[in-house]
Amino acid sequence: MDTVPSEVRKLNFEDYSTAKHLEHAAAQARARNFQGFLIVDVDAHHYENESYKEVFAYIESPVIRHDVIDSSQRPGRSALLNSSVGNQNLGGRITRANLRRLQKVPADGRHRDIAMTLEWMDAMGVDYACMFPTPMLFLGLHPQVEIEVALCRAYNRWLCERILAVEPRLVSMLYIPFNDPDAAYKTVKDFGDCKGVVGFMVTSPRYRPVHDNAYMKTYALLEEMGKPISFHAAYSWEDRALQMTNRFISVHSLGFMWFNMIHMTNWVVNGLPERFPRLKVLWIESGLTWAYALMQRLDHSYMMRTSDCPSLKRKPSEYMREMYFSSQPMEKPDDPSILEATFKMINAETQLLWSSDYPHWDFDLPGVIYDLPFLGEKAKRNILGANAARVFGLDTKVVKRIP
Amino acid sequence: MAEWFVAKAAELPDGDRRIVVAGKDEIGVFHHGGAYYAYSNYCVHTGGPACEGILINKVVDLIAADRTYQGQTFSDEVHFVCPWHGYEYELATGRCVGDRRLKLKKYQVVRRGDDVYVVT
Questions:
Q1: Which end of chain B is more exposed for a tag (fewer CB within 10 A), N or C?
Q2: How distant is the Cα of A18 from the closest Cα of chain B, in angstroms?
Q3: Domain count, chain A
């Protein structure tokens, strides 16, 4: 038996860094030559609550600004900003959720969000990332519409000035305060031309139907600007139906499909694809199986009930197949032919956009697409970056530095 | 076959662990409950650092004789958890709890005097 000199690491939780946490991801990126082609992440997150002190300064109403700042200084009691019951970090099993506070970033003047985000992007092999907030995914459920409008506007201004204007590898589809249709329109009007704004995003958990006439001017404006609208899924344990679930796995699995299934159904049945044929629509973080199921379900009923949706000139699935879908959390059935059928159903080669959802608990690496046995190299590169570059109008130059 | 130095036994107390880079492989070596365990540090899911997460006991539902649910508790079975996504593994076997057909490659650990080695 040979005795071989070995490299041994102690496990020191206090010495956390994103680069160390994702060393295996970087190894995968090198092994697959991700340095050689464009990868775009259409759904990445930061924790905007870590920058609330900065964000709150942008709240324009002096009264709301005062109340929100006061509320944030007494955690643990009722707060002015809503949050959500949940257990994303699996009782501490997802260690980065707690350890990220220990991350040291270079004192080079860059915002901490920029430094931390670029670190994981390089480790995975990502060139550009579309950044979304985290707690604000639930803001559409806030009972005070003016709070949603005020925080949304403050966040968008902060994001544009402090992050997007500074770092060209970060872009965003800005939060639309959808519960106030006029404010939604104003948001698109005011921020549509800002650097790094590649579209606009509706957080899906909310109770406003997308076919309400009040939104038509906003959709028309987006179509005219060539900017996509996206619906970013999340759950709500306050939803009457989802309140019957008793575990996080249940509310998460259902909730992240539930609201987008409703919005998609309303979008198609009410003929919005016919009214806005050039508007790009992107569905984020619902995985893929919901679309596969809903296409079949709506087509089946449509053939018997065309009078319910007279604006449609084709089957619902044909409109859905022209929309865009982000990939994460991509279901991986044991039988890959099932996933292959799903890809075929949504025209994945041109309509699917890879997303990581990092640093959230169920993130995906680019390998989730790159390692699929039924995709050719061109299809892989389309899904991992070229499709997103086309939809968002991004530069296709590779800019990452995989460590 | 090769033996890779892990640690002096006295420097790897019960409850501690090491990650050994053995050529192209990484191996997690645990010292727990008086025994040593060693497994591949690549999660069966997406290759995350499976041995670098927390140790936590298995969660079980308490179902009474009348088949009613009476809450949850921790059993004596110890798991280690991949920190990327939460895949859990039995410390004693390396089997993946969510699908016991899957398991991490297991390595033998030997003590030679005061030294602990993992065998590949």
A1: N
A2: 11
A3: 1
3-state secondary structure (DSSP) of residue A2: strand
Most A CBs within 10 Å, among B1, B4, B116, to test the A interface: B4
Token pair listed for A39: 């990868």
Domain tally for chain B?
1
Residues facing B110 on adjacent strands = B117
Identify whether the C-beta of residue A126 lies closer than 8 Å to the C-beta of residue A117. Answer: no
**8 Å CB contact of B18 and A7:** no
Q: What are the tokens at B113?
A: 């005097």
CATH number (domain holding residue B49): 2.102.10.10
Q: What is the DSSP string of A50-118?
A: GGHHHHHTT---HHHHHHHHHHHTSTTS--SS------TTGGGTSTHHHHGGG----SSS--HHHHHHH
Place of tokens 């009691």: A77
Work out whether strand A281-284 and strand A229-232 pair parallel, antiparallel, or are unpaired: parallel
Question: Is residue A5 in some structural domain?
Answer: no
- Output the domain CATH number for residue A219: 3.20.20.140
Taking the Cβ of residue B49 and every Cβ of chain A, the question of whether any pair is shorter than 8 Å is answered with yes
Q: Which residue of B lies nearest to A20 if distances are taken between CA atoms?
A: B49
pLDDT 10s digits, A11-29: 777 789 999 999 999 999 9
Q: What is the DSSP string of A317-344?
A: HHHHTTSEEE--S----SSHHHHHHHHH
The neighbour count for residue A5, using CB atoms within 10 Å, is 7
For residue range A31-59, list pLDDT tens digits in order. Answer: 999 999 999 999 999 999 999 999 999 99
Residue whose pair of structure tokens reads 């709500």 in the numeric block: A236
Interface test with A, best of B8, B55, B85 (most A CBs within 10 A): B85
- Alpha-carbon distances, residue A353 vs A225, A286, A398, A400, B72 (angstroms): 21, 12, 17, 18, 40
The helix (H) or strand (E) run that includes residue A203 is: strand A197-203
* Separation of alpha carbons A165 and A158, rounded Å: 10
Q: What range defines the domain where residue A23 resides? A: 16-83+90-392
CB contact under 8 A, A8 and B6: yes
Residues whose CB is less than 8 angstroms from the CB of residue A38 and which lie 6 or more positions away in sequence, other chains included: A127, A381, A384, A385, A386, A389, A396, A397, A398
pTM of the predicted protein model: 0.96
The boundaries of the domain holding residue B40 are 3-119
